[in-house]
Amino acid sequence: MTDDGCPMCLLAPKTSKHILWESISAIDILGQCSKKIQKSKTTCQNMKELIAKMIKRLQQDEMEELALTLWNIWRRRNENVFNNVLIDPKTVLHRVLQMQHELAVNKANTDTQIQSNATRNGTWKFPPSGFCKFNWDVAIDRLQYKIDIGIAVRDEEGNYWLP
Q1: What is the SS3 assignment for 76?
Q2: How does pLDDT run across 28-56, given as a tens digit for each residue?
C-alpha cells in the first residue's frame, strides 16, 4: 500500500469522502444507521458537498446520528492506522448509540438550565478581587459551515479586557 491508499480497504485513494462514505468499512457501519442515512447514497464530489446535501435532507436528530457516526468511523480509522487496532463495527455502532444518549441527556439538562436561568433576575455579579470573569457563547451557521465564538472578559471592577 502506498501512502495515498485507503488504510481500511487498501484499494481506493485516501480521501475523506472515501474513508467516511464510500469504503466497504464505512458502508458496513452506515448500513446500520437510520433509513434516511442508509438510503442517502448520493453522488458528490467531496465531503463538504455531501454534508451540504445531507443537511437539507435530514432532520436534526438524523444529522446528529450522521455526525456521530462519521466521527466514530474516522476514529476507527485512526485506531487502525496509528495503533494497529481494528475496532469491530458493532462496537462503533454501540459508541454512536451511547453518544446519542449522552447528547439527549445534555440537551435535557441544558433546557432545564435555560428555564432556571430565565427565572433569575439576570444581574451580573463582579468576580472576587484579583480575578476576572469570562463569559462566552458560540454561534453556528449550518448553511455557511461556520462557527463563531465570542468571549467577554471583565475584571473585579467590571472593566472589559480586550485582547
Answers
A1: helix
A2: 999 999 988 887 767 788 888 888 888 88
